[in-house]
Amino acid sequence: MKKKHYIFTLLFMITLVMHCQTIVSTSPENKKVVLEEFTGISCGWCPDGHIIAQNIQNNNPENVFLINIHQGGFSNPGNGQPDFRTPFGNALAGQVGANFYPSGTINRNSNALGRGSWNGAANSVLGQDSNVNLGIEADIDVQTNEMTIHLEAFYTANSPESSNLLNIALLQNNTFGPQTDYTGTVENPQEYNHMHRLVWLITGQWGETISTTTEGTFIDETYTYTIPSDYNGVPVAIEDLELVAFITETQKDIPSGGGVYPTYSNFANENNARIKYVETILPQCGFDIMPSVNIQNFGESDLTEVEITYSVNGGTPQVYNWTGLLLSLQNESIELPSISYTTEEINTINISLSDDDDNTDNEIAYEFNIANQFTNTINMILNTDNAGSQCTWDIMNSDDEIIYSGGPYANNESVIEAFELAENCYRFRIFDAAGNGGGSIVVYDSENEVIYNTPGNYGEGEEVFFRTIGSLSVNDNNLQNVIIYPNPTNTILNIENAENSIIEVYDLLGRVVLFENNISTNNQLNVSNLPIGTYLIRITNNNKIITDKFIINK
């Protein structure tokens, strides 16, 4: 449903009174930027495009509006993946020749541009005069999911076209899902936050016609739109919706645009804090935990305080009094103080909020597993990037004692470590001082069971918990006289004093490239088929392991 008014130049002063013009300026303004980015969950360079676009918006607040359009082959979902496509994407991409990804247009005034050109094109548009100003506001009834959109436009000069098109795009933010070349976190490697995602064009594929575009024309429109529960099976979170409106001179050439985050009304309760979820808790084995719970204000009034009670495995409850400010539908993850507990195979944390107008959503029970067990011999292969001085790591036992640590390192260094760990619970942590990760890392036990691995996208740092089982090896005589030569080598690697051992050769990505079982006293290992480079050799005998590095140089 829509109400529409077009008021012309001679009646403009009367219009301001009759139609209560409130949200659009009548003074000439510069153009605002609408950046439409064509993207997809299988596009490896698209996260880089998202960063570039977001930086353009951050540098020009309230003057740049982003629309991410999932379209083309890179947007096709795989088995079990979300479908972010829309019925509008192919036509939008077709008219600007968006056949590479990520690509984008700035105000649709050219064919698709590569991400390296967006910033310059945006700065050029921001310096140009606009012939029309646009304002938009919206409200969502939380009981009915009906959105009311109020839009005003005012022409400060004649448009070069006798008619224009008005477009309103509905976007959703904070949708977590897969993204190629994004590693995410240890507990959820596909947890990429998709922002400014186009879900619907409320005014249709190319917008609705504005039939008068002369100087002084004032436009006042009101739309109502009922928000569905999902688009293509992807749930809608009304608190994450965003609107971008813009005018095009034809189907292309945008003189200006605007955007808004809706307000919300018609809540059932005045005061209602509710628990949305508990942040993922990694498998644990003895360390105190600091759980994070996400709470949302689902009431009409501001939420400024709430009492949070929590316990693990039926142990003694703890109480935390949160204070802050959450407006209606806003949410926040709150890290609770650490709590001790007795570890079980499956652990349950119970969290509850203090009483309010609706107590049906004030409690949650969340389960997390005990950490996996590994042998007591642990190996690490760590490769630094070109900023090795930023990389450090440590291993901590359940008494919070750091028993091994390393770094900072040289650039592009390969580090090989082996640890003998008594039966206990441990935490491995990797850090990057610059916050952007580093080189690849793999941590594994003597049975090649992987404890932790990453290609290097670990941000500021990550951690993982693990248990060791059994006692330390007491046969210290095994392998103590092993000799490996020549090093470097080109064809044959001699291994002495390692009879009845298992030989494994790894490349620096942690892949086994040679394997030999039960070798003789003086074994010769043929490495002639391996490419030039650095390799790791691991020799195992009766639960004793040594690791060394050798080079193939032909």
Notable features of this structure?
five-stranded mixed β-sheet; Immunoglobulin-like; 4 helices; five-stranded antiparallel β-sheet; 554 residues; mainly beta
Question: How would you describe the overall organization of this protein?
Answer:
This protein is mainly β. The protein has four domains: 264 residues, Immunoglobulins (Immunoglobulin-like, Sandwich), CATH 2.60.40.10; 97 residues, Immunoglobulin-like (Sandwich), CATH 2.60.40.10; 96 residues, Sandwich (Immunoglobulin-like), CATH 2.60.40; 70 residues, Immunoglobulin-like (Sandwich). It contains four helices and 41 strands. The strands form eleven sheets. It has a five-stranded mixed β-sheet with strand order 1-13-7-6-18, with no helix packed on it. Strands 8, 11, 12, 16 and 17 form a five-stranded antiparallel β-sheet that branches. It has a five-stranded mixed β-sheet with strand order 26-34-31-28-29, with no helix packed on it. It is flat and about 95 Å long.
